[in-house]
Amino acid sequence: MAQQKFFSYRGLPLVRKDNTIYYGSMSDKYVAMLTVLSQHKVKDLDVADKTRVQIMATDPTSVPASEIIAKSGERGSLYDALDVAYIWLNKANA
């Protein structure tokens, strides 16, 4: 069976389900969960204009339930959210 390829950003995999994007590797201690909260139309394309970024533990048994979400914030564009998630993941997984 062939290994599944994922889209990636800055070398980390991206997996999308509806308005939620998971960013990072599940083998790391933390991944980012990006949720598109609102969007607007540009021609025929929906563009995110408000995105929530959450850094979450990949193993919920390794941290107390209150600490599964290690960090959270909101950004305007999806690209801003991905850049913040990349920085936060590097620090959290260091």
Global geometry: globular
Radius of gyration: 14 Å
Q: Which regions are unreliable across 5 or more consecutive residues at pLDDT < 50?
A: none
Structural class computed from helices and strand pairing: alpha+beta
Distance between the termini: 33 Å
Largest sheet strand order:
1-2-3-4-5-6
Counting DSSP H or I runs of 4 or more residues, the number of helices is 1
Q: Tell me what portion of residues adopts beta-strand conformation.
A: over 45%
Order of helices and strands: EEEEEEH
Per DSSP E runs of 2 or more residues, the count of β-strands stands at 6
* Helical residues, percent: 10-25%
Q: Averaged pLDDT, please?
A: 91
Largest sheet: 6 strands, antiparallel
What is this structure, in a nutshell?
Helices cover 16% and strands 49% of the residues.
What does the model show?
The protein has 94 residues and is of the alpha+beta class. Helix content is 16%, strand content 49%. The chain has 1 helix and 6 strands. It has one helix at residues 78-92, and strands at residues 7-9, 12-17, 20-23, 30-42, 45-57, 69-75. It has a 6-stranded antiparallel beta sheet with strand order 1-2-3-4-5-6, with helices on one face. The longest helix has 15 residues, at 78-92. 17% of the residues are buried.
